[in-house]
Amino acid sequence: MLRNNIRSYGRVLLAATALFVLSALTAEPARALTCQVTPDNIGISLIYNGATLTITGESTPGDDLIVKVSSTQYTDVHLKYKGKASGIFWMKLGTMEFKNVPNVYMLYSTGPLNNMMGAEARAANQIGYDAIRANATMERSDHAEVGPEWFDQFLKFKQKEKLYSITEGTVTRNGNQFKLEAHWPFQAPPETYNVQVLAVRNGQVVEQATAPITVAQVGMVKKLSGLAFNNAAVYGIMAIVIAMVAGFAVGAIFKKGGGSH
Amino acid sequence: MFMYLPIALTSVNYLLVTGLGLFVGLLSGLFGVGGGFLMTPLLMMIGIPPTIAAATDANQIVAASASGTLAHWRLGNVDVKMGIYLLIGGFIGGAAGVQVIKVLRASGGADFLIKMTYVVMLGLVGSFMFVESLHALRKNKAGKDSAAPAKKSGGFLSKLPMQTEFVKSGVTHSALVPLALGVFVGVLAAIMGVGGGFLMVPVMIYMLRMPMHVVVGTSLFQIMFTCTEVTFLQSYSNHTVDFLLALLLLIGSVFGAQIGTIFGRKLKGDQLKILLSLIVLAVTVKIILELVMEPSLLLAYAGGH
To answer: Can you list the alpha helix ranges (DSSP code H) found in B142-242?
Structure first.
């Protein structure tokens, strides 16, 4: 058993060395794809209004690059859908569930995605909205059939919330260096996200590099949020007492200032 | 300029939010309404999730109504006795209304009914107040003194037991009358998910026959308690009160309520009534337009109307 393991490790090591030597010998000065994100820790403080991400790294010159910033895991998104109630009024009619979709999905590239790779390769690497659509399923609370137009509505909703975006041609290259400056929306909830850089050559992804971004509440925001969820009674009483005191205090100030008003 | 809200999970321009607070607080001091029917949609427009907008507004109204109540108290406009009767009725009605909603929701199609009730009530209350106060203003212009309305509930109501005098309002009713009206407004407010100020004010004017200025002060006194209860319950069970958002709003609204009270003193009761009716009618028209026109987004986060 142990011997088998050692043997298989040995094989992997050998293959890796061969690959390394091979890549070193090719004519193109191939660079291992790298990726750094600054900042990689985003703190949500009281004055937080989103952030600017700078994503840089090295890549093989000539490769097309795609940068995907997304939720680490796909999840189910629950939303209310609107329709005409009794044929006259537009109202929320029920819940619609979009299953197996990323909560946040932002795509940047060196050029038009459709020219870089075919539909199959895009689907395999989850590049573009059609790739997300292909994996997603939709369900309505009244169990009626959900038409594909509702996924368009979902994309529209996510884009308006700034949680989905595709901006082609935003990744710039200078020799073997690439750079992307991207706006991080304040709407993205605190969690860990994944930055993935894909190098595309001849319509295929040839290399990948990833880096995490952690978004977390800090300071007063974290304290208040913690109090609201873990100590709800104290939080509620504090909110009421401060509101009352503020109301009566301003009332008292006006009496003094206003004289015989 | 921007502040991040820990519960709403969104960033807002704090000057804009404080400005909203000032505006709605002004209406509070003027008319004795909490202004939730205006504030909640305004907050949703700047990106606050509906459930958080409604719960946080209640927290803010605690401050605005405390400020307004104190201002009106000094002017002798708060009928504490009447306010307490209405409050007791309101609490009972609110609890009953929550049960009614549960039954309605279980039977399906409730939201449509609720929305219809809301629009019809707003429309009726607004139209009635508008016509009535326009009539009263015309009479005043013709040179006649506006005859004081009958201060005693007539006929059937005067035969009820527990007749008691409400000194501040200058009226005599059976204690059962404000209690029952409180229950009525409480049930409707709970079903519609609103504070009910816009219903309570006309009820006090037309059914309890209280003078307009005492109506405003007493309504604010009552709203202060109702919103305290709502704030606590929302914080405790739903975690939907964003205290920072409430703080930004109340910085504006406590001053707004004072300014509103000062303005209110310079206006006659009928002028106040006609202004309030116009606002209620404008909100009705806005809600009807929203219901009839196709929304630009057919998906939304859960909660709210």
So the answer is: 155-158, 176-192, 197-202, 212-233
Strand ranges, E, within A45-163: 51-58, 64-71, 75-85, 89-101, 105-109, 137-140
Please give the average per-residue pLDDT across B137-155, as a whole number: 58
Q: What integer is the mean pLDDT of A137-162? A: 94
Decide if B209 contacts B153 (C-beta within 8 A).
Answer: yes
Q: Of chain A residues 180-209, which have a CB less than 8 A from chain B? A: 186-187, 189
How far apart are alpha carbons A69 and A162 in whole angstroms?
A: 13
What is the C-alpha R_g of chain A? 26
ipTM of the prediction: 0.84
Mean pLDDT of A177-201: 95
Report domain extents, chain B: 7-292
Give the per-residue pLDDT at A260.
41
**Chain A residues with CB inside 8 Å of B9's CB?**
187, 189
Does pLDDT of B147 surpass 60?
A: no
CB < 8 Å from B in window 216-255 of A = 217, 220-222, 224-225, 228-229, 232-233, 235-240, 242-244, 246-248, 250-252, 254-255
Q: Report which DSSP code applies to B286.
A: H
Q: What is the pLDDT of residue A44?
A: 96
Q: Which of chain A's residues have a Cβ under 8 Å away from the Cβ of B2?
A: 47-49
Q: How far apart are CA B9 and CA B84, in angstroms?
A: 37
In angstroms, the CA A198 to CA A201 distance is 10
A243 neighbourhood in chain B, CB within 8 Å = 59-60, 62-63, 66, 231, 246, 250
Among B232, B241, B299, the residue with its CB nearest the CB of A153 is B299
Q: What is the CATH number of domain A31-216?
A: 2.60.40
Q: Is B150 left (phi over 0), alpha (psi -120 to 50) or beta?
A: beta
B90: nearest Cα among B234, B216, B218: B218
Q: Tell me the average pLDDT across B153-172.
A: 80
Residue of A nearest to B48 (CA): A187
Neighbours of A142 (CB within 10 A): 11
Q: Give the pLDDT confidence of B167-176 residue by residue, as tens digits.
A: 888 898 999 9
Q: Hey, is the C-beta of B78 within 8 angstroms of any chain A C-beta?
A: no
Q: What is the mean pLDDT of the segment spanning B39-54?
A: 86
**A155 at B interface, C-beta within 8 A:** no
For A86, which of B59, B112, B246 is closest by C-beta distance?
B112
Whole-angstrom Cα distance, residue B101 to residue B112? Answer: 12
Q: Is the dihedral of CA A228, A229, A230, A234 positive or negative?
A: positive
Three-state DSSP string of B64-116: HHHHHHHHHHHCCCCCHHHHHHHHHHHHHHHHHHHHHHHHHHHHCCHHHHHHH
Distances (CA, A) of B249 to A34, B28, B181, B253: 47, 13, 31, 6
